[in-house]
What does this fold into?
Amino acid sequence: MKNQIYPCLWFDGQAKAAAEFYCSVFKNAKIIDENPMVVRWEINGQVFMGLNGGPMFKFSPANSYVIECDTQEEIDHYWDQLGSGGAHGQCGWLDDQFGVSWQIIPRILGQLVADPERGQRVVAAFMKMKKFDIETLLNA
It folds into this structure.
């Protein structure tokens, strides 16, 4: 069975707007199907469902979506697009205009942090950042 497990995001009547927004941000994305209650979309083969559930529940940073980026251009793209109308946080975290939390990180972050010679300097460098800067991390 394909995509046996996928996230359901609870929106206050904005599921279709959210799906359209996410599909505009990611290159390989499309809306799969929709009805007045539910919209399903796919990003890079991962299915998401948006539920028009009402105002009872809100998003929280306790659940976030991580985007590993290979280049600074990718980081800049996702940071700017997803963060538009939302709130930018520390260490690559942001909330989009719908309140969904994202982590926009360089793919090499784990490798840099694990480096016994410079891992602590890398952590010290990124703790001062909002949006990750790959060159600064590489030079730490």
